[in-house]
């Protein structure tokens, strides 16, 4: 809970809501579809790793508040092996 509040405070200090927010994740190749379903977004910049085991996923999304950003991070945390950047 303390980490969530710290993130919220940092987001609120850096952004004026609503605002476009850039999300970056590293996802295992076999979980790309689950990730895309979880995020419910359709404009990704995808970059595979050298070995092809992972894919870097970057996208911008209009967010209405820091709480909305945190909720998206929490929802993707259910994707196995995901790394949030």
What does this structure look like?
The protein has 85 residues and is an alpha+beta fold. The protein has three helices and four strands; from the N terminus they run H-E-H-E-E-H-E. It has helices at residues 2-14, 32-39, 66-76; strands at 19-28, 45-48, 54-63, 83-84. It has a four-stranded antiparallel β-sheet with strand order 2-3-1-4. The relative contact order is 0.27.
Q: State which percent range the strand residues make up.
A: 25-35%
**Would you tell me the overall average pLDDT?**
92
Strand arrangement within the widest β-sheet reads: 2-3-1-4
User: What's the β-strand tally?
Assistant: 4
Specify the helix fraction band: 25-40%
Structural class: alpha+beta
* Poorly predicted spans: none
């Amino acid at each position: 809970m303390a980490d969530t509040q710290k993130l919220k405070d940092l987001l609120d200090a850096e952004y004026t809501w609503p605002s476009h927010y850039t999300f970056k994740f590293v996802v295992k190749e076999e979980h790309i579809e689950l990730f895309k379903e979880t995020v419910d977004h359709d404009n990704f910049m995808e970059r595979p790793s050298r070995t092809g085991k992972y894919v870097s996923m970057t996208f911008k999304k209009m967010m209405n508040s820091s709480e909305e950003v945190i909720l998206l991070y929490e929802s993707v945390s259910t994707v196995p092996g995901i790394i949030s950047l």
